[in-house]
Amino acid sequence: MFGSYLQVAFNWILRQPFYYVVKVLSLAIGVGCGALFFAHYQYILGFDRHIENFDNTYRVLSAFTSPESGERVRPYYNSGAIVDPVRNEYRDQLLYMGSMLRRTEMFTRGEQNIVQEFMLAEPDIPRIFDLDYVAGDPETALDGPGRMAISETAARRHFGSGQAVGQTVTVRDDFSLEVSGVFRDLPETTNMQFEVLVSEETGPRLYGEDFMSDRRWSVYTGYLVYASFENQQQAQSVIDDLETFVERRAPEQQMARLQEVQLGISLQPLSEIYLNPLNGGFNGMDYTRRNTFLGLLGFAVLVVLAGFINYISLTLAQARLRRREMGVRLAFGATRRQIVGQYAIESLLVSVPALLLAIAFLYFIIPVFSAVTDSGLTVADAVSLGVLTVMAVAIVVVCAVSCIAPVVFLRSAYIAGILSGSDQRSTLRQHSGAAIVFGQFAFSTLLCLVVLGIYLQIEYLEELEMGLEPDNLLILDNNYSS
Question: What are phi and psi of 399, to 5 degrees?
Answer without folding.
Answer: -65, -35
